[in-house]
Structures are given as structure tokens and as C-alpha cells.
Amino acid sequence: MPALISSRMLLPLSLPILGAALLAGCATTQAPVAAPPDLSTTFTCKLPTTTPLQETKEMQLKGGVQIFVAIQPFQCVPASRTTKVNASPSFAEQILAKSQHPGQRYVETTKTPYFAVTPERLKVTLKVVNQLSRVFRGAGTVIQFTVAGKTWASKQEDYAEFTNVIIPPRGEQQIELYGPPMDSMPPTGNLGIFLYDVVTKTDAAGNITDKQNYEWYYNYGLQTKEEKGMIEVSKGWE
Q1: pLDDT tens-digit readout, 163-207
Q2: What is the number of domains present in the chain?
Q3: Nearest CA to 66 among 209, 217, 191, 174?
Q4: Bridge partner residues of 77 (DSSP)
Q5: Is this prediction's pTM over 0.70?
Q6: CA angle, 165 as apex, 204 and 201 as ends, to 5°?
């Protein structure tokens, strides 16, 4: 007759099995750990480009006045935008707040990268060489920009440096002109730069005997530049 197995004999064997079962049950019900947020981002820039048309000569000599023109190249410059929102401090931060941060607020600061286009508006550099036997004066010259066939309403201060210039004989001077803001330009089109009634000839007494117009034409467009960056998030008192 087989011997009876007492409950005391089963107890040592059943404890390890029961413990393993409990551990397995706990493992299956444990909440998954949340992955950290992905703070990487891709930011883009619409980079303006200008290309002179084939018939456009960047250096033009008419009468006794030689003018070189150059459009300042555009650049996509990395920058960042900062936003701040109220946040909830931890229990430890709350304890220290009264003694170490009186009157301050706890905020979450986010810095997001982006591209800034510079310059913010069309900038043109002229080099004027006076080959006249008399002083060259820019007074009376009318300067105009056209964008996609439409005349941009420029202001006098945008070309005042030219209209106020005085250049002695055989002298030269570099002058800045300012055109439309880039956010007002269309994605593509033709760009025209015009100088009307430039004095190019004078007589022995200095009287104006001839005036000329200078014209430059360009193709204008946008190129997309892309770059990867990281969003920076921090918390603290301020």
C-alpha cells in the first residue's frame, strides 16, 4: 500500500512554485515605461536667388559715368524661437520655492530652431565711377524696382544715398540701395533695377548736356534649404 504524502511534505515544494507564479503574474501586469519624446525636428528655408539675364551687363558705361551693380547674396541663418508656459513644480521645488525663489514663477522653456533669411529685404550695392571732367551729382536721378512686372513703391530714403552723392572727377564711391522686403516677393519672377536720368555729360561750365538710363534684369526664385536640429526643453524658476 503506497505511503500517504502529508501536507507538510508538499509545503516546501509548493512555496517556490507559488512564488514563481506570483512573480510571473506581476511581470505581465506591469505598466510599460514611456519612451522619451522625440525632440528632433527638421526646419527649412526658402533661399532667394537672383541670376542676371543674358542681356544684362552688371557693369555699364554710358558717357562719363561707369556703374557696377551687385545684389547682396541671401543667406539662411540658423536661429531659434523661445516660448515659455507655466509649469507645475515638483514637491521638492515647492518646498524650496518660498525660501529660494520668492515671487518667481516655475516655467517650461522651449527653444525651437528655424532659419532666418538675411538680409530681410533686397539690398543692392552700386559702385559709381566718375570719368567726367566735372563733379558728378546723383541729384535728380529716379530709382525704381520692378518685381514680376509690377513697380514696387519705393520710398525716398531707400535710395537717398545715391541722390545725395557727390563724386569728384576720376573719383568713385560705393552706394547702397534698398528694394522690396523678401516677404513681399513672389516665389518666382523677373526683377528689374532702373536708374533714370543719370547725368553722364556736362559742358565746360558744368551744365548738364546728357542724361542716360541704366537698366538691369534678373531672374528671381526660391531654393529650399533643409536642416535637422533639436528642440530644447527646460524647466526652472524665473
Answers
A1: 999 999 999 999 999 999 988 889 999 999 999 999 999 888 888
A2: 2
A3: 174
A4: 116
A5: yes
A6: 30
